[in-house]
Amino acid sequence: MHPGTASLASRLRSAPTALLQRLEWRARHAVNTTVSGEYRSAFRGRGMEFDQVVRYQWGDDPRDIDWNVTARLGAPYRKRFVEERDLSVIFVFEDAPALQFGSDGRTRRDTLLEAVALLMLVSGINRDRVGLLYRAPSASWFVRARPGRAGALRCAARLLAAPAPALDGPPSAALPWDFMRRFASRGSVLVWAGPFAPTELPRSWPELQHRYQLVGMRADDPWDDGLPEDARLVAYDPVAGWLTTLDGGSAAERAAHARWRAARESHFAALFPNEDDRLRVRNTEDPLQALVAWFHRHRHAEARGRARRRA
């Protein structure tokens, strides 16, 4: 699937079953050929069955430090857990009018829907439990995590069928993180996909960081990097709620765009301090290849961590 083709939403309305089958075939092919061992490096989870206390080493997760034992023995020790095999991967899809922008025939929403559906199917192929929280200004629903192919297909089908939010409606809706704490078991992987407009961090974010492995997935358009200098057009801004003129030749507008881009990147980094937990997919690239590259990066990071611990 490449840029310039018909939108994902329009193809879904005509042939949802065929689209799902195609995405599943691509996901299964990727698992069998390139990401079979790398998926676990990215979605490691945190098992809940306590094993023993061991000496803390560089590269271990500091969240596992047992502070009572550390204080008693005068050296850092951490809790070791038996890894759960049936990991829960819960997707949080924040649908918003801002996702419906695309400078070359493919919107951020198209890219994000395809990437999330593919990652759901990869998780199902790896026999993990897949769940979904969907939130838009006018709709909100939750699909409980279920294991394997059936659970992944169920979530992907319902997500792809969700209608896009109205452009003239509210620009965003608060995500129900308190609800998520009740229904996502500790140690789950939470994949948050959305526009990530600069705003305050969720109040409960530190607790969520402690309870879950958090991954942010964002779709980027070429115009997010910078306005083309020859661009001049009138467009509707769904966030502001009015028509605005974009002038790429204006130094003031380019400076304002640079400030917005810096604020957006800063917000994304504040939510996910670990660079490996930030997944960016560009409108101009194949979402599956972006996922494969992200899995590769995690595998290399894990290898570097093992090398440091041995040194």
Strand percent estimate:
15-25%
In total, how many beta strands?
10
Domain module count: 2
Largest sheet: 6 strands, mixed
What is the percent of helical residues? 40-55%
Quote the average pLDDT. Answer: 84
Strand order of the largest sheet: 5-4-3-6-7-10
Question: What ranges have pLDDT less than 50 throughout 5 or more consecutive residues?
Answer: 1-6, 11-15
Question: Helical stretch count?
Answer: 11
Task: Give me the Rg, rounded.
Answer: 21 Å
From the N-terminal CA to the C-terminal CA, the straight-line distance is 44 Å
CATH topology of the largest domain: Rossmann fold
State the secondary-structure class: alpha/beta
Quick one: overall form? globular
CATH class of the largest domain: Alpha Beta
Helix/strand order: HHHEHEEHEEHHEHEHEEHEH
CATH architecture of the largest domain: 3-Layer(aba) Sandwich
Short description:
The chain is of the alpha/beta class. It has helices at 8-14, 16-33, 39-42, 67-73, 108-125, 148-160, 177-183, 205-211, 222-225, 251-271, 287-310; strands spanning 49-55, 77-82, 88-94, 129-136, 139-147, 189-193, 213-220, 232-237, 242-247, 278-282.
Explain what this protein looks like in three dimensions.
It is a single chain. By secondary structure, the chain is an alpha/beta fold. It is built from eleven helices and ten strands. The strands form three sheets. Strands 5-4-3-6-7-10 form a six-stranded mixed β-sheet, sandwiched between helices. The longest helix is centred in the C-terminal third of the chain and has 24 residues, at 287-310. Residues 1-6 and 11-15 have low confidence and may be disordered.
